[in-house]
């Protein structure tokens, strides 16, 4: 492929190869227990809460007085994520609120608005619902709340106690369905990972964090990233690293890594390896090993996702059908 020579001649990529971005370790503390009222709702009832909010311009531009912020849930590329409540008439709607980190991103407001408009146009039960944007002393994205939080953190806490492998596969089936929807809309996620899969409950998952997503233009097969940035290299396909090219088939590669994370109950992929070592492993046709509890057939799906030539990888619609047969067999 000749990519190794290209990254060695690119100073920015050389730095990434030597010190790839790593997820922070999860503290050994118990997460706060989600409110029973939210976690005990059925999938349908939970969905109805957010489906009842109309997708109008008036709702999209939220008033600060209608938004109440509570505790911090975490931090992302754009800033903090807070738990909150959106007051609409007499209804109190649980929400997650992404706040803008203005000091680190000079163009953050425009990037945030791109993310907001993009998400507002997406409508699928396995995609986090965008409710609107609130502007006051900072800019906030207001999203539906997934009470159990990121899949990787929940898996580390659960360690298989609450989530059997059958449940894990069901969750990843839902992720594949959500990604098939994005694929059908010509959207590239570009940051699919277990940290960006949120759990409403133990059997209902939603894909989140479209901060780096872009709509593909008609006739375009990919878009080029302007710069490497804080790349999650361990989830990236070779063509993303070598040529800055992203499309649905590079999302498929990332899905394979996400499926590995899920079936290994939150283990970190390529732990301890530098970027150049990961690329050497991939170029030598080696891949992550099968997690201990992962069914061989599910691991075969991962291997299909990690084929070097993107044209040999399955589509997300293919993955949905491949996974369907394993939903009640593990």
From TrEMBL:
- Provide the residue positions that the database annotates as binding ATP: 98, 195
Q: Which InterPro entries does the annotation name?
A: Kinase-like_dom_sf, Non-receptor_tyrosine_kinases, Prot_kinase_dom, Protein_kinase_ATP_BS, Ser-Thr/Tyr_kinase_cat_dom, Tyr_kinase_AS, Tyr_kinase_cat_dom
- List the keywords (alphabetical): ATP-binding, Kinase, Magnesium, Metal-binding, Nucleotide-binding, Transferase, Tyrosine-protein kinase
Q: Offer one Pfam family short name for this entry.
A: PK_Tyr_Ser-Thr
Q: State which Enzyme Commission number(s) the record gives.
A: 2.7.10.2
Entries under PROSITE patterns matching the protein: PROTEIN_KINASE_ATP (PS00107), PROTEIN_KINASE_DOM (PS50011), PROTEIN_KINASE_TYR (PS00109)
The Protein kinase domain sits at 67-327
The entry's active site is 191
Which region is the signal sequence? Answer: none
Concerning SUPFAM superfamilies, the annotation shows: Protein kinase-like (PK-like) (SSF56112)
Binding site residues for Mg(2+): 196, 209
Q: GO terms for molecular function, please?
A: ATP binding; metal ion binding; non-membrane spanning protein tyrosine kinase activity
Entry protein name: non-specific protein-tyrosine kinase
